[in-house]
Amino acid sequence: GAVGVVPVRHDAAGVPHVILVRQYRGPFDELVVEVPAGMRDIPGEPTAATAARELAEEVGLAAADYHHLLDIYPSAGMTDAVVTLYLATGLSPVARDTHGPEEAHMDVLEVPLAAAVDMVLSGQIRDSKTVIGLLLIERRLRVSGAVR
Length: 148
Description:
By secondary structure, this protein is an alpha+beta fold.
């Protein structure tokens, strides 16, 4: 399985922003915008620890809090893989520790949440874990009244 992390921070005006990555994905021969994520490749590692490790590796951030959002089946008819999604808040910079050429060449993007949701709706973001994570966060913040 894998873990995906939706890192959210608010700007000075209280507008929520998400941290995303843009990286080359060979199967599609294109740059794909995604939430930070990674495989659960350390036996016995708790999913929250994997989320913290991937957040540091890919975007150079640590989070004070990780909130479990959902476990998803990204391709139920083809694999038994499970992706665990987290919301990460209370972000602070840490040393970025990229692994391999994919991470070394990825771009880190900070995007207002509303713009990221617009990217989903227009088809610019098509990665399933990212689509689901962004829509869940947008709804959670809208219901709580925290989206502007």
